[in-house]
Specification:
Distance between the termini: 22 Å
Radius of gyration: 14 Å
Number of domains: 1
Low-confidence stretches: none
Number of strands: 2
Strand order of the largest sheet: 1-2
Mean pLDDT: 82
Order of helices and strands: HHEHHEH
Oligomer: single chain
Number of helices: 5
Length: 82
């Protein structure tokens, strides 16, 4: 799940909330987690948002990104652009 979509979740976007309600597992990559934590730190309610975002991250599966994973991602993205 991309970071921007997750930010929309925390802003109670009904489309994103509905989509996530159908998922049994949410997987996050390290860059997405970094973007979430940046958004929390860059917010007016930094302390509160860091707590909420970290609780969400703890409930998700964190993907271990390897060079092989990055290679597959690039192939999939390449074919999605065609």
């Amino acid at each position: 799940m991309e970071g921007l979509a997750l930010i929309r979740l925390f802003k109670n976007d009904p489309i994103v909330t509905k989509a996530l309600a159908t998922m049994t597992t949410i997987c996050l990559s390290t860059p997405v987690i970094a973007e979430l934590l940046f958004a929390a730190r860059n917010s007016t309610y930094q302390k509160e948002n860091l707590k909420i975002y970290n609780e969400f991250i703890d409930a998700c599966n964190v993907l271990n990104i390897t060079r092989e994973t990055a290679n597959y991602y690039s192939i999939i993205r390449f074919y999605c652009e065609i």
